[in-house]
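yo

u said u wanted the structure for the complex thing, so here. seqs first:
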Amino acid sequence: MPNEITDMMRQREYTDAVREILSEKSARRGREYTACVVTYGCQQNENDSERLRGMLLLMGYRLTPERRGADLVVFNTCAVREGAEMRLFGNVGALVHEKRKNPDMMIAVCGCMMQIEENARRIKMRYPHVDMVFGTHTLYRFPEILLNTLKNGGRTFDVLDTKGHIYEGLPILRDKSFSANISVMYGCNNFCSYCIVPYVRGRERSRAPEAIIDECLRLMDGGVQEIMLLGQNVNSYGGGGRAFAELLYRLDRLGIPRIRFMTSHPKDISDELIAAYGELKHLMPQLHLPVQAGNDEILRAMNRRYTREKYLETVRKLRKVCPEIGLTSDIIVGFPGETLEQFEDTMSLAREVRFDAAYTFIFSPRAGTRAAEMPDDTPYEEKSRRIQRLIDLQQRITLQILEKQVGRRETVLVESVSARDENSVGGKTPRGHMVNLPGDRGLIGKFVDVEITSAGRNTLRGKRI
Ligand code: SF4
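structre next:
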């Protein structure tokens, strides 16, 4: 029997053992045990947190969104942005008082950040109130780690295994009933010079198409209307080439109403995938295609392995098969050594492509990456000026694109109730534009036909038809 299957069987035994211990302890203290999972970072991390919640539920915890007063707080961390690191250490430190009040309380820290030795060591030395630390590769062993800590007391550190197998069948408690994130692959082989992901998520490994199809079928049975396929670089799913497009064709045949995916690396986008946008009924006309920069020298220094012209050619091909496609992107401003002239190339690319939206960042060095060692003599004020120009440009383009939607009829999948007005709901068009419209929470998860009546800076307004 493969190791992964025996490992998973053992984890189920540990899950049962934790549940027994908790049920005895709950009976003794006359109160159930509660757990809160706090997530930092990307959708892949959100997806891991859904798995942690699934495991916790099976182990007998009641889940709570409130970390104060919880008996177990799990911080699922992100290593990609520096801000997330600072927030984590602050938030973990703040729980020291909570732990003094509740002797049963346990704290776990897991995720990408813990794959970086220095961070795990910092938790070990400076945050003695943290009971458990584990990395992305050992997430599946959470029941074992928790059982060990519950039974033996002390602290458990489990971040060493970097083999990164795929463990199918982990329990999962999804955040939404109508829309689901599905990881199709893990890790990344690309080593973009600014990115920490390959070091903390390991090399690429893909799930078998059958396992993904099975998961989709189960989700469809449960009423899911939209799936988001996740991977650091889904274009190299199954080793690259046409494999990801083939997976999309198979999923399209299942009839799930809406299929989206992220993230795509421009160098790996295949002609078959581009053709899929013209052929597949359920693949939404939306693509997040991070360009990062519009200048070839900067792209080379970033180790992106495509040129500006290659990127623009991909965009032209996509728009030829799917003129309505909504493109979004990530752009880094102020990469080490970026001259004003090179930045102007990024501006002109943004003008030429006309993204629906772009997530713009000032370069922030991540220790352990090659870019962190590169000489960087551009003052921060200059980088701020550049990013502001790019943001202004993108806001103008976004508004123009949204204004063009006014008067159109669209089908919106309603996702949420407005935080400010309970008689207003929001949902997305096939192209990914957010539309606000009158309605109540009974519409969540339903498709609604709307006419777009006005455009704001980032969202549309519509009325039901
Ligand atoms: Fe990071 Fe590049 Fe991999 Fe994306 S493709 S996860 S930016 S290394």
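The longest helix spans residues 3-29. Residues 188, 190-192, 195, 197-198, 232-233, 265 surround iron/sulfur cluster (CB under 6 Å).
cya
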